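Re: beginner question about structure tokens

> Can someone show what the tokenized structure looks like for a real chain? I only ever see the sequence side.

Sure, here's an example I had lying around. Input first:
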Amino acid sequence: MSKLPRFRVVFEEEAGEFIVAQSKGRRRRLMDICYTIAGRPFSTADFDLLDADGRMISHVSTEGYLVSYTNVL
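And the corresponding structure tokens:
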């Protein structure tokens, strides 16, 4: 059985700065959350909204974080 590749995790500059500013444990947990989303990119998000450029942005709220992402193919 072939396994689909996981999506790549890429951060906007502001998101990367936020993650780097967290404690080691919080950084690890945030990365785990992001890799989980990347591993299941077509799972249902908590909600979706269009951004200013008309792109659909998915949002997942978990463990006190709101993670926003888009699937770019």
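Each token stands for a local structural state, so reading them left to right follows the chain. The CA atoms of residues 13 and 48 lie 22 Å apart.
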